[in-house]
## 1
Amino acid sequence: MAKKRPQTKAKRPQLTDGQIPVVGAREPCPCGSGRRYKACHGRAAAHAATELVHRPFEGLPGECDWVALRELVPAATAGLTLKGGLPDGVPSVTLATVLPMAWPALRRDDGSVLLGLQNDTSSGDISRDLADTLQRALTADPGTPVQARRAPADGPRLQDLLDPEGAFEPVVHSGFEFWVPDPENATADVSASLERANAAAIPTVKLSGVDSAYWCETPEKNHLRWVMPYPEEQLLDALARLHAAGGSSLGEGTRLVGSFRAHGLTVPVWDLPSGIGAEDVEKPAAEFAERLAPALASDAPLTADERRARGGLTNRQVTLS
């Protein structure tokens, strides 16, 4: 057999890790190694895409409200404060639960930025995906939406871009009119999207007397969903102590029915009679917070009744994320 002639490969300029762009998994790696991207510099990106960050909003001001706006609240906005201030030509940056046509972000005609929170993300770190979208929105042409993409594995997170001392104060809206400054002149697509979104929005109100508690109205009954910052096991023990002692309700006709698990935090949920509005639950919620504090502080072993109550709460827990 004839000997195979050795092949000579043209040398490609080698790039540093910081210069490697993101490409398709099966494409040649831009670093010039000759391997596919997924087998070369794409390994870190693939790992970042599958590794779930348990608490993506940890360390941000208002972590509990970030979780609520991501998972529970249909229409809300909150102003964001950037480290080092706003860039030239960007008068404001606002977080929004949802944007028209599910855009990840929008640079308005006046240069202001709207960042959508309830979008699908390409990696296991929502904070990194949102930070990448925010950075691109800050430099986008005014009047254009920002499209989705896979964020670089070594890109910044929201914790790197937002001022840790900045206030996070959500404003809950009855509809999505905040999408457009002049609804009468909106495009047909945006108007149709606005109409559909308003029709599907569940009436929601943020309580003023306690942190991160949201009343909502449904056709059959109302609910209170309260995002709490305490460790899950400690909180479930405390809720079980109160439930066994008859102190877990928010008044006559109300009932603690279980909890959600969302982005590393626990969200107790109460059923409320349809006649109980948000203002009616303000005082009972504040009184519940007072009862919860000593229950959280207790380290006594659970009694038999408390263990049964805890088992019931655990069985009715639903994971949202």
## 2
Amino acid sequence: MDAALDAVHRAGIPGVFAQVRADGRTWQGASGVADLATGRPVRAGLHHRVGSVTKTFTAAAVLQQVEQGRIRLDAPIGDYLPRLVPGERGRKITVRMLLNNTSGIPDYLPYAFPSLAGFPSIPDMSPESIEDNRYREFTPHELIRMGLDAPPTGEPGGPTGVYSNTNYLLIGQLLELVTGTTAEDYITRHVIERAGLRHTSFPSGPRIKGPHARMYEGFYGLIDPPRDFSVYNMSWVGPSAALVSTMDDLNRFYARLLAGDIVSRASLAQMQRTVPVVALDGSTIQYGLGLHKVVVPGCGTFWGHDGSAWGAGAISLTRDDGRRQMSVAVNLQRWNRPDASGQPQPHAIDGALKSLYGLAMCEDEH
């Protein structure tokens, strides 16, 4: 595992750290630097922005409210938020469709970050709005409106979903309505604290509390050299992707969730009902209610989530029997550079990470 981490660092990631749990044993390690300017080494226990891993926490909070009878999964969102999602759309889109990304509501990101509107054509984008929004305070309603005003990605409840952060900002508003407090506060008290996590929190400002790495964004070669975005106002994602955590806490959370300690077994079964969803990178994933399903041939079925913020990436996967877990963090994002046609090309980092994940999930089976 140490050699696999070193290979990821040598391939071009400034700093990588991970924790693997297998049959009651725990390994953790780190390779590279947390700060390119000073050479400060990266450590396994650093706090890190974990991006959309947040969605599992938010979905679990909703399922708790379903268990208490305050939310119905298959009720129209218009029953709860008629002003935010009015008319026919509010009647057709259910809470479940928001959670599994089959609502047809597009992501607001190209509108909140207008210089990214050309995605996936790299020559038609610039990183300008990433810097412009560093300290900007977005409101959830402002971002939700951007998503709702954009052309739909499909019919509500269609056979294939399209991943969208707008869905989870709406879920945050639903949680606020039924709990009488912010989604972040409810998730903190009833999901994070219930799981016994001591180093997981929503940021209260643009800075990360606790020891952490600088987080370098390359944006497909358009930011060269990659720029540090570890200081950033995370109001642009909120309960969709703003959490800060550690790899130990992520493994602890998914172990408790899959053991039925955060939501009931019946709720967990709902979370594990998957549909095909087109991810932001264009790939198709099997997505439940805030959970990815990842089948690793010869090694089993894993559940979890990955996430990305500017400069920070994380992934956490737990085998369905709970006996094997992997959480990995990196402090560089969007390292793939384009070819002449503008398409991102494979990078040595991709292969090194694939090898690391394979070893972490399947070492005993090799």
